[in-house]
Write a structure and sequence with these properties.
heterodimer; A: 244 residues; mainly alpha; 8 helices; 0% strand; B: alpha/beta; six-stranded mixed beta sheet
């Protein structure tokens, strides 16, 4: 599985390096404009957010295309003749997505922290970290992890519908359309199960108390359960039912 | 010794059946020619052996195992299409095979690449059809697999390189492995074939020892092919 991940990355590290370089340059530019109290600050900040947003969309599309290429193009014939099970193939792809997302999160965190420290030297009144409630940072981290789990669930649901199009629905005339409809259905089912399970937990997602809030650990269990369920079904289809 | 057994294999697609109750046995240590006109089900059957397509009905067993990760460890498949990622260089393709197939012999691959007139630094997307065919064959035959499944290995390869290709295939064959080749170029292929399987409309119509068929019919396999598929 690690070897598969290596080859997925060999094709992409230059793109990531390019994206990182653009972000660093834009970040340096924006911080220097903040320091110099530039008139067009909001315009530049807006541009930075737009660039990061577009990059995020491009990355998400790339995450989807990775499985599309493996299932709907000739390259998949190489991947699926290797003695790797469908679970390992899927696991390799998902592990890469998790690592990339975490890597981006870590970079974003480092950027933010460095920017904050630099700006604080110039504008000390912006100091806010010490004013945050003790639990706040921990729960922010928890919330980010839940967002990552939500993203992985979404990607897995898309992979599942692609796997369906190339397995159970492959001999049906409107198989691709059916698998898309199935994607909508899966989303509905996953959403319903998540809220149904959520109703058994002792608290809502956010227990607000000023700016403090708590994310119950059961939310993690529900998310992991959903990921495991969709992963097992998709892995099974890739392992036993695929028609390339 | 029996290596592959297919029993009543059927594959249904949206509008047609690619394979219809196909049953065949493949033995170890032989070169098989899988022959037939376009659309007779050769590629579908080969992809099934490689684990890329699942039968709608029936079973295929290789070395006593149903198609899956166990059989993929011993089956080396070369498809007609370009299944190699276009961004890769030849040396990266070799690395990929070395990393993902335990039976891949990197020295054999490097020797074969040189013999086939290819260079390690060439990118897959820059290769001509013939060069790509030679690369795919080199990679597939560099595995110490028990079953080699070669789908149209001479596609796009010029007559001179075809001789090299045949030589490479012959060198890969030994008593412990089996090679299945599909091709329309029966005349050039028939001298290396031990067994032939003629397919039509998703089923086996003639199968047997190539020499026996030649003796029995008093004609070459190429002539038998032309006779069998005269109306196809």
């Amino acid at each position: 599985m690690l070897k598969l991940m290596k080859y997925e990355w060999m094709n992409r590290w230059k793109i990531f390096l390019g994206g990182l370089t653009v972000c660093i340059l834009l970040n340096i530019d924006i911080v220097s404009r903040i320091m110099n109290k530039n008139d067009y600050l909001s315009l530049y900040t807006g541009t930075l957010f737009l660039v990061v947003f577009v990059m995020g969309i491009v990355l998400a599309v790339d995450h989807i295309i990775r499985m599309y290429k493996s299932l709907f193009t000739e390259e998949g014939q190489l991947l699926f003749t290797t003695p790797l099970s469908g679970y390992k193939i899927l696991g390799g792809k998902i592990a890469n997505i998790i690592l990339e997302s975490l890597g981006i999160g870590v970079f974003a965190g480092i950027f933010w922290f460095v920017d904050y420290k630099v700006i604080l030297n110039k504008v000390p009144e912006l100091e806010m970290l010490s004013k945050l409630p003790p639990n706040f940072v921990l729960n922010i981290m928890k919330m980010l992890m839940l967002m990552l789990f939500g993203y992985i669930t979404l990607i897995l649901m898309i992979y599942l519908s692609m796997a369906l199009a190339k397995s159970i629905f492959s001999a049906i005339k409107y198989g691709k359309l059916l698998s898309f409809l199935f994607f909508i259905l899966i989303s509905k089912v996953v959403g319903t199960i998540t809220s149904w399970l959520g109703s058994f937990t002792d608290s809502s997602y956010l227990l607000a108390n000023g700016i403090d809030f708590t994310i119950p650990n059961t939310s993690f269990l529900i998310s992991i359960g959903m990921i495991a369920m969709v992963f097992i079904v998709t892995g099974y289809l890739l392992d036993r039912k695929i028609n390339l | 010794m029996e290596l592959l057994r297919a029993e009543n294999v059927t594959k249904k697609y949206i509008t047609k059946k690619a394979l219809v109750n196909l049953s065949v046995t493949i033995e170890e240590g032989k070169i098989y020619g899988l022959l037939g006109p376009n659309g007779c089900g050769k590629t579908t059957f080969m992809k099934m052996m490689a684990g890329l397509i699942q039968p709608s009905n029936g079973t295929i067993e290789i070395n006593g195992n149903k198609i899956g990760t166990k059989t993929k460890e011993i089956v080396s498949f070369m498809p007609t299409s370009n299944y190699l990622p276009k961004w890769m260089k030849i040396k990266q393709c070799i690395g990929y095979f070395h990393d993902l197939f335990e039976d891949f012999d990197i020295k054999k691959a490097n020797d074969m690449i040189v013999f086939m007139g290819l260079k390690e630094d060439q990118k897959v997307k820059s290769l001509s059809t013939g060069m790509l065919g030679r690369l795919k064959l080199s990679l597939a035959l560099s595995r110490n697999a028990k079953l080699f499944v070669l789908d149209e290995p001479f596609n796009g390869i010029d007559p001179i390189s075809r001789e090299k290709t045949i030589e490479v295939i012959l060198n890969a064959c030994n008593e412990e492995n089996t090679i299945i080749i599909s091709s329309h170029l029966v005349k050039e292929l028939e001298r290396i074939l031990d067994e032939v399987i003629f397919m039509d409309q998703g089923n086996v119509i003639v199968t047997g020892n190539a020499e026996d068929i030649r003796t029995e019919k008093g004609m070459s396999i190429d002539e038998v092919y032309r006779e069998v598929y005269a109306n196809a």
